[in-house]
Design brief:
- The chain has one domain: TonB-dependent receptor, beta-barrel domain (Maltoporin, Chain A), CATH 2.40.170.20.
- Helices cover 6% and strands 51% of the residues.
- Strand 24 and strand 25 form a beta hairpin.
- 46% of the residues are buried.
């Protein structure tokens, strides 16, 4: 039986359709109009207004407001996005279609970390393998859309202050005419480590005897300091052709990750994106779009802020362990659209190159001898896609398409002796430093609108994603010591196959003058799902020349679940808003649960909104999660519920938002405070206790 608060929310959402239309003059929130008319049940749009109303520190945390999306916490910031139980390279996280590869093998800096809210207009989400325009959208697509300039001169500024000395500020200036526009900005954010519901800092999660605990001078140091600079310029070359150039630089320093063994000294990111679009270049073509981009990340992490780096006979540097990582990604695409028969055919070609190089040094490995942790891996991928949108009738729209991808990977710094001595003993087949893959992707989608207020959706899709550089080639030899007696090697598997998600989904959307209801359910069979596993010492427990290891294996998995969300306009300018999401994950090879699957979760809110000001009370909750992967020491998580309140004032040029999350200061954990990543310490990071915030915005 469902917990009482979950049953109550489900009943509320299912009865929305039966509520009468109160007060014809009542206006729904603008975002609900978009969701009810412009996106299907497997798509979502989160606007920057919704983000600004919340205390979210980054895009990963903000995305948790979308049903089916959750975030994985490693510290105060840099939350990773999880979509229907899939994460990492199982989903695509882009900005304006631009790829970025984080430097940290432990995903300290996931892609969403490298985009600041000051640049963002909205966040678009495609749930499931229905996007063909980008390679690797096996589980879904999260595309962050950058803002554009309004006509004329413009200026905006935002200041947020919050508990634990949080400060976030940004400035944007712009100028736009019919022919050209330019806008640019700067953002800065910082905070001390937040405290949990027991009043303890998240940097205090280790006992006094743990070498992973923070030093006395660092336990209450800044949790992060991040500067972001960005610029966007556009030029209308003629009445059909527009070109745009985006530049951004982010400098993050002193970022603490209590859930990991190390913290980031710095994370420096550069992004360049150029696009040119031609509308109706000929009688046959409706549009042509050319895009080219480049991104680079320079990432340094170490344990200098921890007790593990105290000088000893072995530890002769400021750190006991350190990893220096660099990534480069560049790519291009050419796409177009043309009318074919009664519908529209869209297609294109795209490709990208990634290089990832990470060198680890540790006092516990040959006196700080460098290890090629990510051995200078090149990945090249090229793809072709075509998609046809066919309005079969006035009420039925059919979309179908095909994508073909070829990828080639090469580990340049992995020599044959290291491959044979470190990697091969843990695998059952012969290994190579080079791999190539060829994979198709296809889908069929049906949208039926039998009447204006009702829309039904059905989709079938099969999509793949290639193994990444880490899964194929990571190599970290760790020698067990008194400080880390359970240390295991972390070894890639060059024999991995691409993962393939075969998914079926149905959804329904019901709208009226004063209400909106959307629901979907899906089933995914993921063949060759890339799963982290523990393997024993290949020489046997008595020999011990190599310790056990964490490595990657292909398994067959299944995931199923669904989302339900709705909003209704009540009398007296009140709104009732709710959502619910559930994912079930199973390892079909062992009939055991998949790791890191979020539990049943949702929220219900009551909002008073008269355009100029609003007040909202929200109850947010999650059920317990007792379906865990014991082989990875994943722990069960108790259910929880918290109360959030917020209010806002919107004037012509000013906006003020204030609120308190976790009003009653409850101590709890999100289930995704544990990660399969073997470089985690095993300690869970609790969620933030009572947290107050105030945001002031000005726009000219």
């Amino acid at each position: 039986m469902l917990p009482r608060h979950l049953s109550t929310l489900l009943a509320i959402l299912l009865t929305i359709c039966s509520l009468p239309a109160f007060a014809a003059e009542t206006v729904l929130l603008d975002e609900i109009v978009v969701r009810s008319t412009e996106v299907t049940t497997n798509e979502e749009v989160l606007t920057i207004r919704e983000v600004r109303e919340s205390p979210a520190r980054d895009i990963g945390e903000a995305a948790g407001n979308i049903p089916g999306l959750t975030s994985l916490r490693k510290g105060a910031i840099a939350n990773d996005i999880v979509l229907r139980g899939l994460q990492g390279d199982d989903i695509n996280v882009l900005m304006d279609g631009v790829r970025i590869q984080g430097g940290c093998p432990s995903r300290m800096d996931p892609p969403a970390f490298h985009f600041d809210f000051a640049e963002v207009e909205s966040i678009e989400v495609v749930k499931g393998p229905y996007d063909l325009t980008q390679a690797g959208s096996m589980g879904g697509l999260v595309n962050v859309v950058s803002k554009s300039a309004d006509p004329g001169p413009g200026f905006s500024a935002s200041l947020t202050v919050g508990s634990y000395e949080e400060l976030s500020t940004s400035f944007t200036a712009s100028m736009a005419t019919e022919k050209a526009e330019v806008l640019g900005g700067y953002a800065y954010k910082t905070s001390k480590p937040p405290k949990d519901g027991n009043g303890d800092r998240i940097t205090d999660i280790y006992p006094a005897t743990s070498p992973n605990r923070y030093r006395e001078g660092d336990v209450d140091s800044d949790a992060y300091r991040i500067n972001t600079y960005w610029m966007k310029a556009g030029l209308q070359l003629n009445n059909k052709t527009r070109t745009e150039l985006n530049l951004a630089h982010q400098d993050a320093e002193h970022v603490l990750y209590p859930a990991l063994f190390m913290d980031a000294e710095y994370d420096r990111t550069d992004r360049l994106n150029w696009t040119t679009t031609v509308d109706q270049p000929s009688e046959l073509l409706d549009e042509i779009k050319l895009q080219a981009y480049w991104t680079g990340v320079d990432h340094l992490m170490h344990d200098e802020f921890r007790e593990s780096s105290r000088p000893t006979m072995m530890i002769t540097r400021d750190y006991m362990m350190e990893t220096d990582a660099d990534t480069t990604t560049y790519g291009a695409s050419l796409s177009g659209a043309l009318a074919v028969g009664p519908g529209e055919l869209r297609g294109g070609i795209d490709g990208f190159h990634k290089n990832w190089d990470a060198v680890n040094r540790s006092a516990m490995y040959m006196g700080y001898a460098p290890q090629p942790m990510i051995p200078d891996v090149d990945q090249d991928q090229v793809g072709l896609f075509a998609e046809y949108n066919w309005p079969a009738t006035d009420t039925i729209k059919i979309t179908t398409g095909l994508r073909l991808d070829y990828a080639d990977t090469s580990a340049n710094s992995l020599d044959s002796s290291r491959l044979d001595s470190l990697y091969q003993p843990y695998q059952s087949s012969s290994l190579s430093r080079d791999n190539d893959f060829f994979e198709p992707t296809a889908n069929l989608q049906l949208s039926w609108k039998p009447e204006q207020s009702l829309e039904l959706f059905a989709g079938l899709a099969s999509a793949s994603r290639m193994p990444d550089a880490q899964e194929l080639y990571i190599g970290l030899q760790r020698i067990p010591t008194m400080m880390m007696p359970m240390a295991k090697n972390w070894i890639g598997n060059p024999d991995l196959d691409p993962s393939r998600n075969n998914q079926a989904e149905v959804g329904i959307k019901f709208t009226g003058d004063t209400f909106f209801l959307s629901g979907s359910t899906y089933y995914s069979r993921v063949d060759d799902y890339i799963n982290l596993v523990s393997v024993p010492d290949p020489d046997g427990p008595d020999m011990g020349t190599l310790p056990g290891a964490k490595t990657y294996q292909n398994i067959d998995a299944e995931l199923y679940g669904g989302e339900l969300s709705g909003q209704v306009s009540l009398p007296l300018d009140m709104y009732l808003i709710g959502n619910l999401a559930y994912t079930h994950g199973e390892n079909r090879d062992t009939n055991e649960p998949l790791a890191e699957i979020p539990p049943l979760a949702g929220s219900v809110a009551l909002r008073y909104d008269i355009d100029t000001w609003f007040v909202e009370v929200q109850e947010q909750f999650a059920d317990q999660q007792n379906r865990v992967d014991d082989s990875l020491n994943e722990e069960e998580t108790s259910g929880w519920n918290i109360t959030n309140i917020k209010a806002g004032l919107n004037l012509d040029q000013w906006a003020i938002y204030a609120g308190v999350n976790n009003l009653f200061d409850k101590y709890y954990f999100s289930h995704l405070s544990y990660q399969r990543d073997p470089f985690r310490t095993g300690a869970k990071v609790p969620e933030v206790g009572s947290f107050g915030y105030l945001t002031v915005m000005y726009k000219y």
